[in-house]
Amino acid sequence: MRPVTATKICSFVILVLAISINTRTTEMKTKPAPSLRFSISFPEASSREPIDGRVLLLVSTDKTKEPRFQINEDLNTQQVFGVDVDGLKPGAEAIVDASAFGYPLLSLADLKPGEYWLQALLHRYETFKRGDGPTVKLPMDRGEGQQWSRAPGNLYSTPQKITVRASDDRTVKIKLDQIIPPIEPPKDTKYIKHLKLQSKLLSKFWGRPMYLGANVLLPEGFDSHPNAHYPLVIFHGHFPADFGGFRETPPDPNLKPEYSERFHLAGYNKIEQEYAYKFYKDWTGPDFPRLIIIEIQHANPYYDDSYAVNSANLGPYGDAITYELVPFIEKQFRGIGKGWARFMYGGSTGGWEALAAQIFYPDEYNGAWGACPDPIDFRAYTVVNIYEHENAYHAEAPWKQTPRPGKRNYLGELAATLQETNYLELALGNNSRSGGQWDIWQAVYSPVGKDGYPKPIWDKVTGKIDRSVAEYWREHYDLGYILRRDWDKGLGKKLEGKLSLYVGDMDNYYLNNAVYLMEDFLKATTDPPYGGQVDYGDRAEHCWNGDHHNPNYISRLRYNTMYLPKILKRISESAPKEADTKSWVY
């Protein structure tokens, strides 16, 4: 009897909700539209050609900096509304009114009377006629790492003050009178070199020239030891404009201290310089391992990097990095050029990339250390089980819907719900074009939709999960599932000793949940045993990387030193007998 009663109750609740939604929809249709509107245009001086893209209206109560730099997922975010434009001509108007999707307020109709600072920005899209058929409009990276607020060529307005009154009846005109200038590329030094390679694989996929780049850190003595050949280490992570954390001069004594909101710490920019200079002294010291470390530039039309795997929407980035870029670098800088001498580490996005590349290319790399990795098991896609949950935004029950959390601190205090973080992205761009975290996961993992854009894993407005897309994700990118599926088919033998994971048990984005699931499998596996390490930081936030001795704000500056002893140990244990383990030791 109880199951029948529960079913009747659930059906009744659904009926009531449906009636409520229909009533609200009718009210919205009959309610007069708010009269406050914004007309946004650009002069011929900014561009003589029509522009495709996303117009963003930015509204702020904080006058200390431009509104375009105040949009985020945290509690201190300001307001954004977004609309698409196709072929917007000079002098023509893009209208932002109550129909524009917004974050955190969903509609301009919800803007309360008061004083605000306004700014508008036009994020440019390009048309791509892909080699596999679809034609799509996307924002190509222009050297900034897919940051709409800083992308060269984007048009924006000078901030202006406005007073909004109750029942405002007017159109506010905004001119996009500024253009974000090009970014000057970094210069080579004795130790750091910058490479750019046109990828044949990616160019064919995108139907236009596409490039991969790398910032290469050369070992001390590279020029004076011409017969040495070196192991290669990839430090995976977000877009690196230059090789980070390496400073050849002492910290600037006149540096103005900056406060870190993330770590609640004053003068963090000085700490960064101190550790960057310390790494330089270690790197050039007499007893430091002689290796090549690279950071890859693979920003693309969807995000600041590609996740280093092949994708139906992004193209064959995994193959392009492994079979085009890495050999190119090894040839130019005397890398050993063998799988046993290639290693990877990284955190967050870089942690997922290191683990994924090791799993998908098990013979090409000899060890991956993944810190605070993005979800590596989609039964814990942060807090969503995409195979069992019906809705990503809330847990459904007969009498209530409980919002799922999106971001927390080490005490569990919430900064955002999962719905809010997705609504931020939807305001910035539809069709996975926001440049945000959830959109790039969707772009990498999803099949191509009928419109040529990534097929959504869930409805961006309602949160309803598409089970068919979830099944595609499981077979292609769920790292935990792939290990369980293929471990006994030969993959386990190739990965023995190559996988290590580190995460804080209070990761801000709940990334520890998926690590628990993978740990359960790895530690229960005995044929062969995985032979790596899984470690957790007590009350540690994102992005804890295995350092039990330093706070998070310090350990994140030590990636390039803390994993090197593990790499040397791995070489001593696994290098073939005939391998070159001596020419690079000096």
- Kindly report the oligomeric state of this protein: single chain
| Main sheet: strands, sense, barrel | 8 strands, antiparallel
Q: How many runs of DSSP E, i.e. beta strands?
A: 27
The chain-level structural class is: alpha+beta
Please give the radius of gyration in angstroms: 25 Å
Distance between the termini: 78 Å
* Low-pLDDT residue spans: 1-30
Mean pLDDT: 93
Helix segment tally: 14
Instruction: Note the beta-strand portion.
Output: 15-25%
Shape: globular
Helix share of residues?
25-40%
Strand and helix map with partners:
Elements (H helix, E strand, L loop, with lengths): L1 H29 L6 E5 L9 E10 L18 E10 L5 E3 L4 E3 L10 E16 L5 E4 L16 E2 L3 E5 L6 E5 L2 E2 L12 E7 L1 H7 L4 E7 L14 E5 L22 E2 L4 E2 L1 H16 L8 E6 L12 E2 L3 E2 H16 L9 E6 L1 H12 L7 E4 L22 E3 L4 E3 L1 E4 L5 E4 H11 L8 H9 L21 H11 L1 H8 L4 H5 L3 E6 L7 H13 L8 E5 L14 H4 L3 H4 L1 H11 L12
Parallel strand pairs: 1-10, 14-17, 14-20, 20-21, 21-26, 26-27
Antiparallel strand pairs: 1-4, 2-3, 2-6, 3-5, 6-7, 6-8, 6-9, 8-11, 12-13, 13-17, 15-16, 18-19, 22-23, 24-25
